[in-house]
Amino acid sequence: MSVDFISFAQKVYPFLDLQSFHRRYYRLLQSFAEGRIRKLMVSMPPQHGKSVGASTLLPAYMLGLNPDMRIAIASYSASLASKFNRRVQRIIESSEYGELFPETRIKSGGRPQQYIRTADEVEIVGYNGSLLSVGREGSLTGNRVDCFILDDLYKDALEANSPLIRENCWEWYTSVVRTRMHNLSRELMIFTRWHEEDLIGVLRQLEPCIEVRSWEDVERAQGDEWLCLNLEAIKTGDPCPIDPRNAGEALWPQQQSVELLQNKRRLDPVRFEAMYQGRPSARGGQLYGDGFAEYDTLPTDIVRRVSYTDTADVGDDYLCSISYGVDTDGIVYVIDVVYSREPMEVTEGLVAEMLIRSDVRLARIESNNGGRGFARAVQRLAPRVKVEWFHQSGNKEARILSHSATAMHTIRFPRGWAQRWPELYTHLTTYRRDFRSNRWHDAADVLTGIVENEAPDASSRKLWRVGFL
Question: Which ranges in 130-240 belong to alpha helices (H)?
Fold first, then answer.
């Protein structure tokens, strides 16, 4: 009997609450089950149903399609892997499963005696198929594996941040998992990301990977290429067939709303970016890290109040506008921030309100890509502020890298800025020295512009081409 994976899941687990993203996720898993995908990486936020689909329903479905298949499930602990195994066994024993796949049976009670059935291993009666579960670093001696499912190989941040555990995990993967595979073996990795150099991160550097954005990407994939799907808790970027949400929408709003997710982000922006957005960043190789000094009260010797604005270059960029004060020693104190991907008709008002609120006297706005029109709109909304537009022609990478040390030495943020502007905080503290590995440059670019104009010891002064409005 032929049945698709979604129908199978609803048949054996009628209580499933399948959202639209689950259905697209399950469609990918079906392609994996049918062998049209051989190597699949999926990163997903916690508590969004990744393991139910990949480590419970999928093995049962694949054994139904092919009772000769030998599947291994691995996780950070043997007990968790065994839990997945027992759940699969209960599905196979159910009457609903028997109606769909009557040929796939497992030992019941003591019969048939020659077949294995434990919490860690079960064999399919009359066939060569089996399901084996193992904890990370566990042995697979003598077992040929047709399909590996690796589900959360790191228990938590403490494990993922340990270089020793990451190295042991890599050693286990290369010396155990890969040695049990053959030409047609399949691999599925399903993680909540914790660290940039976890197993997914290392493999993405070493082996060919395709970011899945459309179903055509699935059809075009070659056998040696990883298909990579990252489902963000809060969508960034443009809609695509695999993830048609608009930017700013939650993945499962009925369970975790945008408001709840933003609260989690405020508590720990860097960890949120890893666990919920699938973009971990190691401390090593960061340009700024958490090296910015903080202040409690704005000094009384502020000699000027200015703002610097970089309008979004492309649709996925952020508008970054920072108002700040400069004291008699040339130290820059950030007063307020607008950091947003809202359209210009929204950010024009937000920036104007910030300028008035911060008592800014001079606003500098980059004129690149519509900046002149933006500057004119801000001038209309904040008529008492002197607005200047300018064109930035310097090389962004060279500017950011050469002025990073001066920025950290000169710029102060108000205490608690991580909670006040969590996205800005995340993008600055995780910004990498390897310029190409950064997705967003907007915040770093604005800090650099401030340094070029305000820091007394900057290596070079900015040459402005200013237009007065």
Answer: 157-160, 163-172, 199-206, 215-220
